[in-house]
Amino acid sequence: MGRLNVDLCGVGLDNPVIPASGTFGYGHEFAEYYDIDCLGAFSFKGTTKEPRFGNPQPRIAECAGGMLNAVGLQNPGVDRVIAEELPRLAKVFHKPVMANVSGFSPEEYAYVCERLDKQPQVGWLEVNISCPNVHGGGMSFGTDPEAAAQVVRAVKAVTAKPVIVKLTPNVTDVVSVALACEAAGADGLSLINTLQAMRIDLGTKKPLLANVTGGLSGPAVFPVAVRMVYQVHEAVHIPLVGVGGVSSAEDVIEMMLAGAAAVEIGAANLTDPYACRDIIRDLPAVMDRYGIQNLRDIIGGAHG
Amino acid sequence: MEKGVFTITENVPVAAGVYRMVLAGDTSAVTAPGQFVDIRLPDLYLRRPISVCDAADGRLTLVYKTVGRGTERMADMGPGRELELLTGLGNGFSLDGCSGRPLLAGGGVGAAPLYLLAKRLVQRGVRPLAVLGFNGASDVFYADEFAALGADVTIATADGSRGVKGFVTDAMAGLSYSYVYACGPEPMLRAVWESSATDGQFSFEARMGCGFGACMGCTRQTVNGPRRVCKDGPVFLKGEIVWDG
Ligand SMILES: Cc1cc2nc3c(=O)[nH]c(=O)nc-3n(C[C@H](O)[C@H](O)[C@H](O)COP(=O)(O)OP(=O)(O)OC[C@H]3O[C@@H](n4cnc5c(N)ncnc54)[C@H](O)[C@@H]3O)c2cc1C
Ligand SMILES: Cc1cc2nc3c(=O)[nH]c(=O)nc-3n(C[C@H](O)[C@H](O)[C@H](O)COP(=O)(O)O)c2cc1C
Ligand code: FES
Q1: Annotation: CATH topology of B2-89
Q2: Which of residues 201-260 of A touch B (CB under 8 A)?
Q3: Residue numbers in chain A where pLDDT is lower than 70
Q4: CA B172, CA A156: separation in Å to the nearest integer?
Q5: Whose CA is nearest to atom 37 of ligand 1?
Q6: Does ligand 2 have an atom closer than 6 angstroms to the CB of A100?
Q7: What separation in Å is there between the alpha carbon of B100 and the centre of ligand 3?
Q8: Does residue A65 belong to any structural domain of this protein?
Q9: I need a surface site. Which of A15, A53, A131, B224 has the fewest CB within 10 A?
Q10: A–B CB contacts, 8 A cutoff, strictly below
């Protein structure tokens, strides 16, 4: 085993670096630029039952140390992902892929997961519970421990693959949602999704994003993500994937010390298409600098 | 797409608030007129997309207007300064399908990418018409450069301070042409799209997260379904375009 190898819910990874959902498409754009088999894995674009166009323009805004997006889960729908995207991906990526799933009711999550469960390429289902619960007043599933648990139970009933539940940071107590997901059978948790945010255009004096609000990500959210991973690691016994603002090999190590078994990288891929490749390349030298022999030995190392 | 470091060799005003920046570096990824580059700027998180105005032999020319923090920062940069660019982004204009006498319709700084297009057309023995619209005389740039290539240039200004008084479409009204290439603000593109009788290609802008097809930040609706301005565009065929999609 190499110095970078880690385990995520029983599936081995060559390294802990996983491009985050929504920032890596279904892989082929990046496969044009570098050999994406160097990645630990990657999480594909949030996939829903029906095709979705997403939100009107503009969908993107900038801020100090980060960006806001209101893409609105644009995707071709699970049937086309299976028929078109996964076969194309098989040509350029020869490792298990993380299937990111969104839905607007527990039944929709289960519908999508059941189909993706049958795909041999899929190593994990990453269930994004930041979506609004259309039959539950429109609140995000991820802000209510019971609604989150309902989604987890619905998904666990239809898949044998490890289920990683992706938590939203837009809550007062992330630990209670994490515990509810663990109790409902989640095999792992990834955190954090984007933070709800907005910008106003001084020229028009109106919200800059057509959707009014968007999700903040990038280096600005890194300390928030580290804090939440640390807190959840204290409480649960299932593996965590640390996400939010990771932009360097040092950030990967910091996230793992907080308690992450693997690390997802989102916005950094957008500002530099080679970010993940370069972070993987940089890891051994940064580990040497901090006297780290194997990454798998530092997970949760910051805890007392 | 290529990522590379370029060195500024020139950065001079060419009109009110409009600058020409010439950079030295590897331009081999630029394969078509109408493609763009994405520039990393100090302290700004997202790159700034700017069209290629000209590219040849390791010399890249951009023409940009100062509208905010990024472009203002660019205007302050002097020769010798290095910038990291993604180059060769977007589909660009296609020279195929254009027969006879094409008309290049540029709105404001949207004229910039039409320059390399004009150059390529002339290299093919096609002499385009160029109709370039601006707010006023102080905003006009590159009229002589287009003419020097051999294009037939008409200038329109909204305030009538130079050339035809009115919009690009007013100046186009009396001209005969067989194909349209347009770049400029969206209301101008729409006016050209509605008033031109011929086929054509239209270059769009969108706020971009990545510039190379990864984030779906720049998507527009088209008759063929959702398309990314940065990767499937920025140039779309007349028949593909949906307004207010
Ligand atoms: C494909 C393409 C080609 C372009 N070519 C040129 C060109 O040749 N010359 C030129 O002057 N301008 C061009 N633009 C517009 C240029 O990208 C914006 O003017 C510039 O990004 C503004 O940055 P700023 O920091 O000065 O403004 P700010 O308003 O401070 O920028 C804030 C954010 O909004 C984005 N943004 C603001 N305005 C635009 C816009 N009109 N289009 C896209 N993103 C925007 C910025 O990139 C940044 O992320 C092009 C845009 C696109 C999409
Ligand atoms: C453009 C964009 C699209 C995203 N789409 C999704 C998505 O479809 N599903 C999801 O679970 N997270 C999505 N995210 C959230 C990221 O996966 C990640 O959790 C978040 O951006 C924080 O990480 P970062 O700071 O490294 O970007 C998206 C983020 C961005 C920037
Ligand atoms: S800007 Fe990211 S897909 Fe176009």
Answers
A1: Elongation Factor Tu (Ef-tu); domain 3 (2.40.30)
A2: 218-219
A3: none
A4: 63
A5: B207
A6: yes
A7: 35
A8: no
A9: B224
A10: 89
DSSP secondary structure code for residue A219 in this structure:
G
pLDDT of residue A82: 98
B44, B45, B216: residue with CB nearest A71: B216
pTM of the model: 0.97
Options 1.10.510.10, 3.40.50.80, 3.90.1150.30, 3.40.50.720; CATH of B102-205? 3.40.50.80
The closest alpha carbon to B209, from A100, A61, A29, A247, belongs to A61
Return the CATH number at A182.
3.20.20.70
Which residue has the CA at smallest separation from atom 30 of ligand 2? A22
Question: Across the interface, do B210 and A218 touch by the CB < 8 Å criterion?
Answer: no
For residue B44, the CA-to-ligand 1 centroid distance in Å is: 13
Angle at B69 between CA B35 and CA B245, to 5 degrees: 50
Ligand 3 centroid – CA B63 distance (Å): 22
- CA-based angle B76:B77:B78, to the nearest 5? 120
Q: What is the per-residue pLDDT across B56-107, written as a single tens digit (0 to 9) for each?
A: 999 999 999 999 999 999 999 999 999 999 999 999 999 987 778 999 999 9
Give the integer Cα–Cα distance in Å for B44 and B68. 11
- Domain encompassing residue A88: 6-53+72-194+221-297
Return phi, psi of residue B5, to 5°: -100, 130
Say whether pLDDT at B216 is over 90.
yes
From ligand 3's centre to the CA of B213, what distance in Å? Answer: 4
Residue A67 located in a structural domain: no
Q: What is the mean pLDDT of chain B?
A: 96
Q: Which of B209, B212, B216 sits opposite A67 (nearest CB)?
A: B209
* Residues in chain B closer than 8 A to A27 (CB atoms): none
A22 lines ligand 2 (CB under 6 A): yes
CB A42 within 8 A of CB A35: no
Confidence category of residue B245, pLDDT binned at 50, 70, 90: low
The per-residue pLDDT for B98 is 76
Which atom of ligand 3 sits closest to the CA of residue B211?
1
Best of B67, B189, B232, B236 for a ligand 1 pocket test (most atoms within 8 Å of beta carbon):
B67
B115 pLDDT above the threshold of 80: yes
Quick check: ipTM above 0.90?
Answer: yes
Please give the positions of A annotated as active site: 131
Question: Which tens digit of pLDDT belongs to each residue from B156-176?
Answer: 999 999 999 999 999 999 899
DSSP strand E in B140-243: where?
152-157, 164-165, 179-183, 200-203, 219-222, 225-228, 235-237
d(CA B172, CA B185): 17
pLDDT of residue A133: 75
